[in-house]
């Protein structure tokens, strides 16, 4: 939002509060009307658009004190969060704030917190006694993937999500008795359960379909889940850390199992972190998109300890460059997934916004399988016991601990299943600065792999090694020298596991590496 528009919005809120008196924006809201589903046209690619700028209207002649501190911090100007030591202290502030040029833009009763707007920071500070916790409020946006940087061989998912996850047969009961909250732009799916913290557009066709797509991905994997959609972002994809905090606290009050947040901020809000910590302590699992800016850090709340930070891969299981790296927990598909959109449309949905609900829904599927419902934390722990390794051997900053595979989870208790896989052909540099190839073999079956030959072909020729003994779930790494010429390098690796291998398609992997660029 431009500074002029923001000042005008705060000014109008303050003028309105002088006429109508102060009020508190309650967390409760009316559910959105169910949208009629119309026949869907052919799907088209959808990438979250950058926020639109509103035209600045003529402002009233009012002296405004520049909020340079928030501007330098990258926070929302002329806005702060106030947290009080008690409900009584908050009420006392509200009484003093009447007709003092302070707009009350929101509240969170559980935290004794207010979202306030002002034109003069001195006026706000004059109403405080120093016992309050005053903090910035940061912008939150839907992440927009930089798709122009996709590698040439990247493959979209289309409608193959369930088979990619290893889901076979009927999944109608997946997610049964699991309570979800999705913090997003709201859902227009038939029968959607919406709660609106941000006003809906006058024309239903103008509603941003991001939340609908996220909800649809959850329903594709775990159709029996009880999903509530909290609208905390407007139709330009804008929200803030106070609204996100409101959503989390409302989900905590609703006693849900899982929260999905496919948006993020690069401002570290203490108020938001407190809400996240309270939700985690209550046993709620939070899944959040890592972000789509290609940064070497993930956005908040994905960056908070205990939150599952989800990165994106393509249908081949290859890292997508727009997906933020750093403290990534796990990865899931995030390129061209076929999903629903506003107005009954079907689109191709791209970004870590898609990856996060896939992992969240996979966790819900595990929760509802094999007897009484387990906790979301226990289910996620089981899911991570059967991740497919990728990239550098073991955990890394791009793939986290690996990629989700529900098929392996469901067959984990069945003995005697052979499944050897080439997890990665990974190029790295050794201690002497020389380029090397690390071929990662993973046993994705339930029986020990013994004396399996691994054949690797590089521009230098073909080599054969042997996996002596590899227990289920474990990896083995073979390191070879590699020269990448101006023409690049093609690497092909294959592991042989006999005719009984349950998934021969993952026994071989071919990668083409481009020549290093010179500055």
UniProtKB/TrEMBL annotation:
Signal peptide (from-to): none
According to the record, the residues making up region (Disordered) are: 40-72, 494-519
Catalytic-site annotation from UniProt: 184 (charge relay system), 210 (charge relay system), 353 (charge relay system)
Instruction: Tell me the InterPro entries matching this sequence.
Output: Peptidase_S8/S53_dom, Peptidase_S8/S53_dom_sf, Peptidase_S8_Ser-AS, Peptidase_S8_subtilisin-like, Peptidase_S8_subtilisin-rel
- Spell out the coiled coil positions from the record: none
UniProt lists compositionally biased (Polar residues) regions at 494-507
Peptidase S8/S53 domain boundaries: 195-402
Regions that span the bilayer: none
Any idea which UniProt keywords this protein has?
Hydrolase, Protease, Serine protease
Specify the domain of life of the species encoding this protein. Bacteria
* Protease found in the keyword field: yes
Ranges of compositional bias, category Basic and acidic residues: 51-69
The Swiss-Prot or TrEMBL record describes its family as follows: Belongs to the peptidase S8 family.
What PANTHER family does the entry give?
Answer: CEREVISIN-RELATED (PTHR43806:SF11), PEPTIDASE S8 (PTHR43806)
**What is the protein named?**
S8 family serine peptidase
Name the species this protein comes from. Luteolibacter rhizosphaerae
Q: Species lineage, top-down?
A: Bacteria, Pseudomonadati, Verrucomicrobiota, Verrucomicrobiia, Verrucomicrobiales
């Amino acid at each position: 939002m431009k500074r002029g528009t923001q000042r005008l919005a705060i000014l109008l809120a303050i003028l309105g509060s002088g006429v109508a008196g102060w009020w508190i924006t309650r967390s409760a809201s009316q559910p959105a009307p169910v949208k009629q589903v119309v026949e869907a046209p052919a799907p088209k690619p959808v990438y979250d658009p950058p926020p639109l700028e509103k035209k600045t209207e003529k402002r009233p002649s009012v002296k405004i004190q520049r909020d340079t501190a928030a501007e330098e911090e990258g926070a929302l100007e002329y806005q702060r969060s106030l947290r009080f030591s008690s409900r009584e202290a908050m009420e006392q502030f509200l009484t003093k704030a009447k007709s003092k040029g302070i707009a009350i833009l929101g509240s969170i009763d559980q935290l004794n917190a207010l979202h306030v707007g002002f034109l003069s920071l001195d006026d706000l500070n004059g109403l405080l006694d120093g016992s309050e916790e005053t903090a910035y409020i940061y912008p939150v946006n839907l992440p927009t993937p930089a798709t122009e940087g996709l590698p040439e061989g990247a493959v979209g998912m289309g409608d193959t999500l369930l088979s990619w996850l290893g889901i076979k047969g009927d999944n109608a009961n997946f997610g049964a008795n699991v309570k979800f909250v999705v913090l997003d732009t709201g859902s227009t799916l038939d029968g959607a359960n919406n709660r609106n913290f941000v006003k809906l557009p006058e024309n239903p066709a103008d509603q941003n379909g991001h939340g609908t797509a996220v909800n649809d991905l959850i329903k594709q994997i775990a159709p029996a889940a009880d999903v509530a959609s909290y609208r905390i972002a407007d139709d330009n994809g804008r929200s803030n850390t106070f609204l996100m905090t409101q959503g989390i606290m409302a989900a905590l009050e609703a006693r849900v199992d899982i929260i999905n947040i496919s948006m993020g901020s690069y401002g570290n809000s203490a108020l938001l972190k407190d809400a996240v910590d309270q939700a985690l302590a209550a046993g709620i699992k939070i899944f959040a998109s890592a972000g789509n800016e290609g940064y070497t850090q993930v956005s908040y709340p994905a960056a908070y300890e205990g939150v599952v930070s989800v990165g994106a891969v393509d249908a081949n299981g290859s890292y997508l460059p727009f997906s933020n790296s750093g403290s990534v927990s796990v990865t899931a598909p995030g390129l061209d997934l076929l999903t629903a959109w506003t107005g009954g449309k079907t689109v191709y949905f791209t970004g870590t916004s898609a990856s996060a609900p896939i992992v969240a829904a996979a966790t819900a599927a595990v929760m509802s399988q094999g007897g009484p419902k387990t906790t979301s934390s226990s289910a996620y722990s089981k899911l991570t016991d059967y991740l497919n390794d990728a990239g550098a051997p073991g955990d890394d900053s791009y793939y986290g601990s690996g990629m989700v595979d529900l098929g392996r989870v469901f067959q984990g208790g069945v003995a005697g299943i052979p499944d050897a896989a080439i997890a990665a052909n990974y190029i790295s540099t050794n201690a002497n600065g020389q380029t090397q190839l690390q071929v990662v073999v993973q046993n994705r079956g339930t029986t020990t792999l013994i004396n399996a030959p691994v054949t690797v072909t590089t521009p230098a020729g073909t080599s054969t090694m042997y996996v002596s003994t590899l227990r289920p779930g474990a990896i083995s790494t073979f390191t070879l020298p590699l020269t990448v010429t101006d023409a690049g390098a093609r690497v092909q690796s294959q592991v042989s596991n006999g005719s009984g291998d349950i998934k021969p398609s993952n026994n071989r992997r071919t990668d083409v590496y481009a020549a290093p660029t010179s500055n």
